């Protein structure tokens, strides 16, 4: 089934309900959104020559048109290619060429960059232009039939190591992901809303399908991005607001609420994922905003669906293992099987660390035009995530680090997150990232990059003493480097590759 049927259904069932808001103002009802989407799909087919299976890229910052573009592409039977709008021109050119995008839908500000990167002027459709207005007023078409195994979207990985790979996400993958949202993450009630402060080209955009299915509201901030003060105001005005955010964004939001005393009751759910949420930060978030948090762990290769830590589990402070569970990423989502395996692919017992593998209807069929990478990642029916972790006896998964981030010093494995958790206990450490750097004697040594709090850096000896209180001596950093900011990509993930290059 084509996932576009979700919008077609809601356009009929929830036609008069508000669908898309820009700020706190309603732009379109579901009936209008459905009509504009069907018209844009027909324009792609009749005026742009798009046929089922063709790739259509979206190169834009968050905007109301982004949502109708996503749905129109699959409505027409094509494959969406949502492109990170912060990519370098060469990276954009690679994605457009590798995907073979026939058409590029772009915002006005980014249209020149799209042309420079190789998009043909005849295949460029610019949000808000006269041609775009004609496209969303075109005679509509019905949803194109697609098989569950047909590709619905190509998601290009961030490419921090080598060329980005195009993850093929099928209609079945996205429908299974949507089902998992309701069973494992959160329910959606009448009047609920999702605010898109994180890029729609990434995980935040994938969660639009669950909101569409239930007739929820879709809120695009006027800023188009993440501004804590704006989000708090939107929550107060729109109410029942759900946010998907990287941990760094949650940290900024919580800091704003604490500093201003703002009322956060307008937030219904804050879902975090995409990077480690450190224990102290999570405790502060729960103490500040209350029981509004849920965590998900996923990858583009199994979009948003490997494990989840529910609101109820985070709220259960009376559980004897609450602190351990809070530091985990939860349990396997309902439609997937998760295991931890050794180098030979054998399942490891509870408590032992190995690579996290997953299988199920959410797992991609492979990478676009990349058989070698597909064979490395998909083995014997399992997706090898590249993440290291351990399962406890109750099925809670605790991530250690990416396999490539594990530091091997003197033959011993050191997991950077363990060191980072300790260093963040110091009140003058605002952010930290731990990496391994080559060393002639030890193979690798531990180096910590730190961002100081308001009172500035502290002496190495103070941090050494803190580490020695909680972790083995060989795990403590051999060097502390204070920096103004940690390098991050547009999704808020720390770029440890860049930190290693500073050595």
Describe the structure.
- The protein has about 500 residues and is α/β, with parallel strands linked by helices.
- Among the domains are: about 1-15 and about 25-170, 3-Layer(aba) Sandwich (Rossmann fold), CATH 3.40.50; about 405-500, ANL, C-terminal domain (GMP Synthetase, Chain A, domain 3), CATH 3.30.300.
- The chain is about 35% helix and about 25% strand.
- The chain has a nine-stranded mixed sheet with strand order 2-1-10-9-11-12-13-14-15, with helices on both faces.
- β19 (about 380-390) and β20 form a beta hairpin.
- The protein is globular and about 70 Å long.
- The model has no long low-confidence stretch (mean pLDDT about 95).
Which range best describes the helical content: under 10%, 10-25%, 25-40%, 40-55%, 55-70% or over 70%?
25-40%
In CATH terms, what is the architecture of the domain at 1-15 and 23-170?
3-Layer(aba) Sandwich
Counted by DSSP, the helix tally is 18
- Structural Rg: 23 Å
If you consult CATH, what is the topology of the domain at 1-15 and 23-170? Rossmann fold
């Amino acid at each position: 089934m084509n996932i576009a049927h979700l919008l077609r259904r809601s356009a009929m069932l929830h036609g008069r309900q508000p669908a898309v808001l820009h700020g706190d103002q309603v732009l379109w009802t579901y009936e209008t959104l459905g009509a504009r989407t069907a018209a844009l799909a027909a324009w792609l087919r009749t005026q742009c020559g798009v046929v089922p299976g063709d790739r259509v890229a979206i190169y834009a910052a968050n905007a109301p048109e982004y949502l109708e573009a996503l749905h129109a592409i699959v409505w027409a039977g094509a494959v969406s290619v949502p492109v990170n709008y912060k990519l370098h021109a060469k990276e954009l050119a690679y994605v457009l060429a590798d995907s073979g995008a026939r058409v590029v839908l772009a915002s006005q500000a980014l249209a020149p960059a799209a042309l420079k990167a190789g998009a043909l002027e005849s295949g460029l459709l610019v949000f808000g232009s006269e041609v775009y207005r004609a496209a969303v007023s075109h005679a509509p078409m019905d949803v194109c039939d697609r098989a569950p195994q047909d590709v619905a979207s190509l998601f290009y990985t961030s490419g921090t190591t080598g060329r980005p790979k195009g993850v093929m996400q099928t209609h079945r993958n996205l429908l299974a992901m949507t089902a998992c949202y309701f069973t494992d993450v959160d329910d959606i009630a009448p009047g609920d809303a999702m605010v898109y402060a994180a890029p729609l080209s990434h995980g935040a955009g994938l969660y639009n399908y669950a909101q569409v299915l239930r007739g929820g509201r879709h809120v695009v901030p006027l800023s188009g991005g993440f501004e804590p003060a704006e989000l708090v105001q939107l929550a107060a005005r729109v109410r029942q607001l759900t946010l998907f955010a990287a941990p760094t964004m949650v940290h900024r939001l919580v800091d704003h609420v604490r500093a201003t005393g703002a009322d956060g009751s307008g937030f219904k759910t804050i879902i975090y994922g995409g990077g480690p949420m450190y224990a102290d930060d999570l405790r502060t978030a729960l103490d500040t905003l209350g029981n509004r948090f849920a965590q998900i762990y996923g990858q583009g290769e199994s979009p948003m669906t490997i494990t989840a830590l529910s609101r109820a589990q985070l709220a259960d402070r009376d559980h004897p293992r609450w602190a351990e569970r809070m530091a985990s990423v939860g349990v396997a989502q309902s439609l997937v099987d998760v295991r931890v395996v050794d180098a030979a692919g054998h399942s490891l017992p509870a408590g032992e660390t190995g690579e996290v593998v997953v299988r199920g209807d959410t797992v991609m069929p492979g990478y676009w035009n990349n058989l070698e990478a597909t064979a490395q990642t998909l083995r014997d029916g399992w997706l090898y995530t590249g993440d290291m972790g351990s399962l406890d006896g109750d099925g809670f998964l605790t991530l250690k680090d990416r396999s490539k981030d594990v530091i091997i010093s003197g033959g011993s494995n050191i997991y950077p997150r363990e060191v980072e958790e300790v260093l963040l206990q110091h009140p003058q450490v605002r952010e930290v990232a731990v990496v391994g750097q080559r060393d002639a004697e030890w193979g690798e040594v531990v180096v910590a990059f730190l961002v100081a709090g308001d009172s500035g850096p502290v002496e190495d000896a103070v941090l050494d003493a803190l580490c020695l209180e909680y972790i083995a001596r060989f795990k403590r950093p051999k060097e502390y480097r204070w920096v103004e900011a940690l390098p991050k990509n547009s999704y808020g993930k720390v770029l440890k590759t860049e930190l290693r290059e500073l050595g």
